[in-house]
Amino acid sequence: MSQVWPPSAQRDASGALSIGGVDVRDAASEFGTPLFLLDEAAVRERARAYRHAASEVGASSVYYAAKAFLATAIARWVHEEGLGLDVATGGELAVALRAGIPGRDLVLHGNNKSMSEIETAIAAGVARIVVDSFEEIVRVADAAARAGVVQPVLVRVTIGVKAHTHEFIATAHEDQKFGFSVATGAAAEAIGRIVRLPSLEFRGVHSHIGSQIFDAAGFEEAATRIVAFIAALEREAGITSRELDLGGGMGIAYLIDDDPLEIDVLAEQVAQAVAQECAVQGIAVPDLAFEPGRAIVGQAGVTVYEVGTVKQVQTDDGIRTYVAVDGGMSDNIRTALYDAEYTVELASRSSAAEPMLVRVVGKHCETGDIVVRDAWLPSDVVPGDLLAVAATGAYCRSLASNYNYVPRPAVVGVRDGRTSVVLRRETLEDMMQLDPGA
Ligand SMILES: *Cc1c(COP(=O)(O)O)cnc(C)c1O
Question: I need a labelling partner for 48 at 20 to 30 A (CA). Which of 194, 198, 277, 434 fits?
Answer without folding.
Answer: 277
